[in-house]
Amino acid sequence: MSGKTKALILGVIVAAGLLSLLVFSSMNLAKYKAEVCVTFNGTTQCRTAAGATEEYVIRAATSDACSTLASGVTQSMACEQSPAQSIHWIRKP
């Protein structure tokens, strides 16, 4: 085998290893998953989020729900500060 062929094979092996590590590590980050329902201005929206911590999941799902419930920065901030109407845990270690 020539030097270029060996380098190419080694590069492919290293790239495959890095890709596998990236996929494996990202799968383990989502330990929690929940559906969060938020009511703002008389309308309710439910959204699902996944993440490494309970706090992150609740914040992400709330923010996603508020993006459809509120218009403008002031309403968005008010919506995101309101307590969740319900939290249904889909996955929790």
Properties at a glance:
3-stranded antiparallel beta sheet, alpha+beta, elongated
Can you walk me through this structure?
The protein has helices at 3-29, 54-69, 73-81; strands at 32-40, 43-51, 86-91. Strands 2-1-3 form a 3-stranded antiparallel beta sheet, with helices on one face. The termini are far apart. The chain folds into 2 domains: 1-30; 32-91. A hairpin with a 2-residue loop joins β1 and β2 (43-51). It is an alpha+beta fold. The longest helix is centred in the first third of the chain and has 27 residues, at 3-29. 56% of the residues lie in helices and 26% in strands. The mean pLDDT is 88. It contains 3 helices and 3 strands; from the N terminus they run αββααβ.
